[in-house]
Write a structure and sequence with these properties.
1 helix, 10 strands
């Protein structure tokens, strides 16, 4: 099944992990890159799916709902974690938006700091950034 990509992004092999989401055009700082797309599911369903999958493509919208980008996604579900990201997520009116943290140039991999995920706190980070904290989830310390 072919994924219909959000405008301005492409999918390619990532040096961080598997496939990644890359800028196909210039994204100025603080501007929208794309909206996260996929199947809207309950948080309890997201927890159940996470238990059955090694890779999670789900983002929480709030305490009740999540979006599973692996079903009906638009390529944004390939945005990898980095401890030194170039974008951030903003949730507004039950929509998850990816915004440029700084100018992002064509060919750059788009990354975010996942902060907290459905992954175990032991899930290792592979971003390779100088300030890498070694785990995907940010500790509560």
């Amino acid at each position: 099944m072919k994924v219909k990509l959000a405008p301005g992004i492409g999918i390619a092999k990532s040096a961080i992990d598997g496939k990644g989401c890359f800028a196909a055009r210039f994204f100025p700082a603080r501007r929208k890159i794309a909206e996260y797309a996929g199947e809207r599911i309950s948080t309890s369903e997201a927890v159940q799916r996470a238990a059955r999958r090694a890779k999670h493509r789900m983002c929480a919208v709030d305490e009740n709902w999540s979006i599973d980008g692996s079903r009906g996604g638009n390529g944004t579900h390939y945005i990898n974690h980095s401890c030194e990201p170039n974008s951030f997520m903003m949730i507004t009116h039950s929509h998850i938006l990816f915004m440029a943290l700084r100018d992002i140039h064509p060919g750059e991999e788009i990354t975010i700091d996942y902060v907290q995920t459905y992954h175990s706190d032991r899930k290792r980070c592979r971003c390779g950034a100088p300030s890498c904290r070694a785990t995907i989830n940010k500790s509560a310390t």
